[in-house]
Structure formats: C-alpha cells, structure tokens
Amino acid sequence: MSRESSLRAQLVEGIFASVMFGFTANYFTPFGLLLGAGGFAVGLLNALPRLCNALGQFVSAGLVRLMNSRVKVVSPAVLLQAGTLFVMAVLFLMPVSVRVPAFVALVGVHALFGAFGGPAWASLMSDTVDKREYGRFFARRGLVFGIVNFVANAIAGLLLYVVPEKMYGFVGLLFLAGVCRVISGIYLGRMDDVPIAYSPEKHDFS
C-alpha cells in the first residue's frame, strides 16, 4: 500500500475513532451511576483507566518487538477494545450485584487495550507522514477530529436527553461506539506496515 493510501486509511480510522471517543469518554461515569455505582466505584472509574493506560504503554514496545509489526499490534488492540464496548452494552442483562464491578473492570480493560496500541500507532504515523509536513498534518488532523469528537459528544448527550429509558440510551451509545471502533480497527489494519527502524543505541523502535 502507498503512503497516500495509508493516509486515507488513517483519515477514515480517525473519524470513526473520534466518534467512538465522543460517545464514551464523558459517559462512562454517568453510565456507572445508572448501574448503581457508589463513590468508591466512581473513583475507580476515573483512576483505573490511568493506571491501565500506563501499564499498557509500558508493555507496548515489547509487543511490537514480539510481533515485529506495528499494524499487527495496533489493529487487534483496537478490535479488542471494541469488544469491551459490546460487553458493556449488555451489562444490564447481568445480575444487579455484578454490574458495577464488571463495568469498572471493563473500563480498565478498555483503557488497557487502547494503551497497547497507542505508542505503536504514534510510531507508525511518524513513519507514514512526510516529516516536512508534521506540523501542518497533525494540526489539521487535530482540528478535524476535534470537531468530529465534539459533534459526536453533543449527539450522545442529545440522545440520552430524548430517550425516556436512559438504560437503553446508554446501550445504544455503547453499541454504536463499538461499531465505530471496529471500523476504526479495520482501517488501521489496511495501513502500510512500514518496516520498523530500531535504534542501535536504545535497542528499541522509534
């Protein structure tokens, strides 16, 4: 695949990823409260993703070295992350006593899978984008995806406002977010898997 095709793939991937984040980032805690989360569980919902994100990034480089590929790390990690959203969407079918602990655990796993792919994705993009265009490219990308994220966030809030049964509103949001993340993972898998350049000094990829 050419560089241009990879850039088109990351554009589509980024749009769907931004929609997924817009549908979820600000709505995990409200969903947890709806499930019956107390103060301690809400604290975990905010703290656990940060811990899992740090742990995931710590092992990311090892996964890339093991697979000798960044695309083979990023795409499966994103698809697995999508899977956690689908499981969240059916938590209301579980016994009440396990809904909150299961949701807290899923939020942590969701963050962990995202962190597995983060450094590998950043490294892959650095080799895909023309280095002379870094500033312009990432500024434009940030603007476009920021707008998409904002619109998705607003749509999510509107959906929850107009749906009488809030549980079904959250279920719909999580399911749609999962679908968007699946599409995102598919397009990540279509990017050119640029050969990894290892640093002789650091014995790691850049």
Model description:
This protein has 206 residues and is mainly α. The chain contains 7 helices and 2 strands. Strands 1-2 form a two-stranded antiparallel ribbon. β1 and β2 form a beta hairpin. α1 runs parallel beside α6.
Give the strand order, joined by hyphens, for the main sheet: 1-2
Indicate the percent of residues in helices: over 70%
Give a short account of the largest sheet: 2 strands, antiparallel
Q: Structural class given helices, strands, pairing? A: mainly alpha
pLDDT averaged over residues: 91
| Shape type | globular
**Strand composition percent:** under 5%
- Overall strand count: 2
Measured on Cα atoms, how large is the radius of gyration? 18 Å
State the end-to-end CA separation: 21 Å
Compute the number of helices.
7
Written as H for each helix and E for each strand, in order along the chain, the element string is HHHHHHHEE
- Unreliable spans are none
Could you write a compact summary of the structure shown?
The chain has helices at 3-24, 28-35, 39-67, 71-89, 96-128, 134-162, 166-189; strands at 198-199, 204-205.
Comma- or semicolon-separated keywords:
single chain, 206 residues, mainly alpha, two-stranded antiparallel sheet, 7 helices, 2 strands, globular
Topology of this structure?
Layout: H1 3-24, H2 28-35, H3 39-67, H4 71-89, H5 96-128, H6 134-162, H7 166-189, E1 198-199, E2 204-205
Antiparallel strand pairs: 1-2
